[in-house]
Amino acid sequence: MRATEISALPGVVSRFNANCSILSNIYIRGTLKITGVADSNGAKPAIDGGWDGTHDGNFPSYATPTGVRLFKVQSGTLIIDNMILTHCKGGQHGGGAFKITGGSVTLTSSIISRNIGGTTEGHGGGLAISGGSVILKNTIVSNNWALRMERRG
Description:
Elements: E1 2-3, E2 6-7, E3 12-16, E4 20-22, E5 26-28, E6 31-36, E7 46-48, E8 55-56, E9 59-60, E10 71-73, E11 77-81, E12 84-86, E13 98-100, E14 104-108, E15 111-113, E16 127-129, E17 133-137, E18 140-142
């Protein structure tokens, strides 16, 4: 399954029972709820941003052109349950999987892993938060990279 740029409409609910690749940002201005349905072995489905994981020595290469940020939350509400969010690459100002400047984000029973913050200011390998509210419940944030090492997340 592949998706292109989407602006979330009020009340949209999406259920995933298979992995998905995203081709460009999903801008959240309304309400979007994403629920992952685990397979028979209990594995969560993943949303993949397409970053190829290219490394420069022991650290990811920021020059690689692959990958996109999954979600840019400016207003509205994003609720994600039981998903893996991976292989995302943020823009100039970071936020590999999420760039949150407003609205609210709630992640439950999910994993944010193997994402990269961006190109120059690269804050937040997994999440870059400059506004809004974020709630993480039973969620793992690990193995994400940011250009500014003091701002990994």
